[in-house]
Amino acid sequence: MLSLDDITTKQAALDVFTSIVECNPSTVREYMLQETQSTQDDDELLLNLVISEIQSDPDPELSGALNLLNYLKLLIDPENMIAVSIIEKTEFLSFFYFRSMSVLLAPLMANTIDLKLGRDDFHIAQLQYLILDFLTFCIEHHTYHIRNFLQKKDLLRRVLILLKSKHQYLQLSALRFLRKIIGLKDEQYNLIIVRNNLFASIVDAYKANKRRYNLLNSAMIELFEFIRQENIKTLINYFVENFYSDFESINYVKTFHDLKLCYSTQRDKRERILSDSSPTSSTSRFYDHLNTNHILSV
Question: Does residue 297 fall inside a structural domain?
Fold first, then answer.
């Protein structure tokens, strides 16, 4: 019924869908998995028809889209799959990421083609905000599937393009997504950030903000302060070696100075270890030991 053009019929179908998801999400998941066996057309899948309704919500505030996304969260929430076997859980998440996640992200991906922000009106900003909120939920609750998807689609780079938006709430949402990823302290994510030079987007946003003390400024400082407090070495080294010069003159917070101090401490420690383990150092200690014994024997 969701594929029909009649608005009343569609709304009735959505009401039935949300009621069943709320009462018995496992039944909906089971139906969706069975549906994949009978259709190869992604556009005909129930989940993708629901996503289509999310993207076409006529409400300026997208209240209907927000409501439907919350029901999608119920479907993919691992904590809501306690009675489901690990195999069934993995099967459903694999289906979701393989056949529906790209459909959900289509507006975001289309609006960041060539790594440039396209439309930036309120409606598209609001839709992208809801998508980012959903992605943040996935980062919090999934591991393997979202990380693979993020890497394959270069998704984090696309998200950080939203830092160029004129809507501060969307900028903050993009930054919160990155902060959530860094908060996992997962070295694979850290390496994705470094290899793709993703802090460049943060630095550009910081410069564009012109040091105005606002929520965006505070959120960026908090992100770097977290990296310092948690001593995330990969990101500390990456930041100091590539971007410290852009922040060296900032003295109203100690964060950047302390990051440089952490970096220098780590570097000195590495150099001492290398020095102590070098053949020359070992030989020197050997002869010092011989000389000491000779003096004692005399």
Answer: no
Contacts with 89 (C-beta within 8 Å, 6 or more apart), sequence order? 78, 81
Residue with tokens 């980012």: 132
Which range of residues forms the domain containing residue 219? 7-230
State the sign of the Cα–Cα–Cα–Cα dihedral 48, 119, 149, 68: negative
pLDDT in tens, 198-233: 999 999 999 998 777 789 999 999 999 999 999 999
Quote the number of domains for the chain.
1
Give the CATH number for residue 84.
1.25.10
pTM over 0.85: yes
What would the DSSP string read from start to end of 40-93?
--GGGSHHHHHHHHHHT---TT-HHHHHHHHHHHHHH-GGG-TTS-HHHHHHHH
Question: Token pair for residue 150?
Answer: 């993020």
Question: Is residue 25 assigned to a domain?
Answer: yes
Number of helical H runs and strand E runs in the chain = 16, 0
Quick: pLDDT tens for 34-87: 999 988 899 999 999 999 999 999 999 999 999 999 999 999 999 888 777 888
